[in-house]
Records
---
Amino acid sequence: MPFPAIPGWDVSGVVEAVAPGATGFAVGDEVFGMVRFPSLGGESAAYAEYVAAPASHLALKPAGIDHLQAAAAPMAGLTAWQYLIELGHDHPNPLQAQRHRPVPLAGRKVLVNGAAGGVGHLAVQLAKCKARTSSRSRRAPTSRSCASSALTMSSTTPGARRRTRCASWTSSSTPSAATTGRFLRTLKRGGALFPVFIGFRDADQADERGVTVSMTQVRSNGVQLAAFGQLLDAGTVRVAIDSTFALAQAREAHERAARGHIQGKIVLTVA
Ligand SMILES: NC(=O)c1ccc[n+]([C@@H]2O[C@H](COP(=O)([O-])OP(=O)(O)OC[C@H]3O[C@@H](n4cnc5c(N)ncnc54)[C@H](OP(=O)(O)O)[C@@H]3O)[C@@H](O)[C@H]2O)c1
């Protein structure tokens, strides 16, 4: 990465100008998006007052949420979406040779490890909504049920999670690679494990146990973000804000992240 570089990918704001030929948005539109991910060279530059973004990476900000929530949603939400719902891109997968294939959630039990974090708290809500919707459960999903499940999962201790009896697990796990093998013991044959981090090391053990392990790298996708935005707009899925910092306090924001035990997302605000 050439320095100096401006970090960050997630944004929410108002369109100030539209490039010739760009379509879909007009000056004054409120938009949000994960801009140019993956990219490492500062091309996204989201820690800024103004950001140039491809129109295909943006979606209209849901009217039902504010810019804080919208800025917190794109990367974590798209990661959960592209692991659990639909992949949404044909780019080579840097985390494994084959294409990641989300499994149908109908009838599945889903364990989200790290459910208090950015990806985790949205993954648990998405999984609950989609599993119920597609399994035609008599208990229709409500905004309260999907959002409150995230809070319940977040406050559950790892020991308590392990005691839960499940026919099959789809685990979207977020912590470090050194601890991945322990998840396999909680999965039944035929289950699937979706680590979101780089470096899952127990592929042989997973094969022996009949567990599918699959990973991918999230990519910018305005169309999927618009679909996810409908759930945010309706309050079916809610974004939790751990803390906010002014843009000039970005260093403090990173120090907060480094302390761990995050409850949702950290957001930088601009005047
Ligand atoms: N594949 C992709 O495209 C993609 C996209 C986005 C993010 N990621 C990766 O996904 C991971 C999560 O990202 P995030 O933004 O959600 O991070 P985050 O907000 O920091 O959340 C991480 C969560 O994991 C928990 N955790 C950490 N170590 C744990 C352990 N050993 N056992 C159980 N829980 C543990 C944390 O809880 P405590 O701090 O309380 O322990 C926290 O709830 C990161 O590794 C990130 O790099 C991958």
Note: Residues 75-76, 79, 113-114, 116-120, 174-176, 179, 196-197, 217-218, 260-262 surround NAP (CB under 6 Å).
---
Amino acid sequence: MSRCLRIAINGYGRIGRCVLRALMESHHRESIQVVAINEPADLESMVYLTQYDSTHGVFPGAVAAVDGGLSIDGCDIQVFHASEPAQGPWGQLDFDLLLECSGRFSTRARLQPFIDAGCPRVLVSHPGRGAAEVDFTVVYGANENGLRADQHIVSAASCTTNAIVPILDILDRNLGVGGAFLTTLHSVMNDQPMIDGYHHADLRRTRSAMQSIVPVATGLAQGVERLLPQLAGKIQAKAVRVPILNVSAIDLSVNLNRATDPQALKALFLAAARAHPGLLACTDQPHASVDFNHNTHSAIVDLSQIRVNNDNFASLLVWFDNEWGFANRMLDVACAWADQFSDNPPALMTGTPQISSLGA
Ligand SMILES: NC(=O)c1ccc[n+]([C@@H]2O[C@H](COP(=O)([O-])OP(=O)(O)OC[C@H]3O[C@@H](n4cnc5c(N)ncnc54)[C@H](OP(=O)(O)O)[C@@H]3O)[C@@H](O)[C@H]2O)c1
């Protein structure tokens, strides 16, 4: 029998917990084993927040603290609480890949100590501060073919990048993108306080997350250009946090080089969704954001919101579950990378159903 891909998780917050729960719900469950989690919180709280999740619901299986570790559905996971890479017992663990999900390590200088401490490879849950801070940045479905065994620090980009890169790529290949404005409407995150508080260097992130629509700084334009270098200088982005727990959207305004109309764009994205099952979907249903909670896709194009002005100026609304979709992509990337560095790689994604019936 082939060996499972053995992973560890650093930072067991929203993304770290979603990765573990997504694994338990996905076809990767048979081929990936979580051997350790490093997180500052106490074990009792970790068990509790694994079992009870306000956004994704109660975990249906058994979760318990066993021998100082976390047991989920009979799988035993070591737990430790190191604040710096050098303090963790990484070198004593038998594992293949660390999923860095704390968000606290975004430069090569901060990430390399994980390798030095014995982590064979690190997959980061956010973009590197610059392209050179990681060996490769991957958006699953776009460029995972570039993963190599000799890369050691790889970024899975951001949830927003995973949502918009496939859309811009499809538009550019078929119609030519002359320029685009992206506005991310993002649910709240743990880097915002519940009520006003001294919490962040970005002044607006000191404001109550649940009381306001809060514009925040974003590196999305640079992140997109890193993945789609042919669009360098053509992308501008804004981000606003909106007071909902989960699920985000991107409002895309794009100048196209060739003329189009809403019907042609619908046909284009329906065909693309058929070509990328499990990653890209379309819907013509009258959805609100909550309908996409726990959705595994990277992006869902809302066909009812497509607009075209003067043949070349188009507007799209793209939904994505910023937690669950991204956590599933982290697992997909882990498997795709293991395909390069392992003698017995786990099975790659086989595709999941589209989210709704499609009116073609
Ligand atoms: N949430 C999303 O929708 C989303 C989507 C895609 C990517 N991401 C990215 O993923 C990263 C994590 O986001 P998140 O929303 O999961 O944040 P989060 O809920 O705050 O989780 C981060 C966890 O890491 C812990 N931590 C802090 N310092 C640590 C250290 N030195 N070693 C190990 N663990 C440490 C935190 O503990 P304390 O709370 O005690 O500090 C917290 O439990 C960020 O870079 C974010 O941009 C987030």
Note: The radius of gyration is 20 Å.
